[in-house]
Design a protein that fits this description.
Layout lengths: L3 H51 L6 H18 L4 H15 L6 H7 L3 H13 L5
Length: 131
């Protein structure tokens, strides 16, 4: 039979371990949320700019630089969640810094077309615990 003092010590260690697991999950959820907020901001601004351009508005290099900064900023919190997706966001920002030098084939190969990045964001948003 286990002595009560030893049983309580073991029980305390189990509770502490459960607490650490919960804290780890909470921290991970916060990291994913931070990444999602950054991604959604970059997506919203990019889609708004694309819509403006498609409706006939002139190109705006300052706005393109701002979009580049948003994509680069989104890449940072993604590093600890999905390095490949973080790199795609970095590439997306690089595209907006110099969009004239990118070919459509290169955009497709890098997986940085707006629809591809939006789908990856949707997957992150709806994924429950794998990240």
């Amino acid at each position: 039979m286990i002595e009560p003092v030893i049983a309580f010590k073991l029980f305390d260690k189990v509770l502490a371990g459960i607490g650490l697991i919960r804290e780890g999950r909470k921290k991970r959820t916060e990291e994913v949320n931070t990444a999602l907020f950054a991604l959604l901001a970059a997506l919203a601004e990019t889609r708004a700019y694309i819509a403006d351009r498609e409706s006939g508005k002139r190109r705006n290099r300052q706005r393109e630089f701002q979009i580049a900064r948003l994509w680069h900023a989104a890449a940072v919190p993604l590093r600890s969640i999905d390095m490949e997706f973080a790199n795609r966001c970095f590439e997306k920002g690089s595209y907006w810094m110099e969009p004239d030098i990118w070919a459509k084939k290169q955009i497709a190969e890098k997986g940085i077309a707006i629809d591809a990045v939006m789908e990856a964001t949707r997957q992150l948003l709806t994924h429950e615990s794998g990240f």
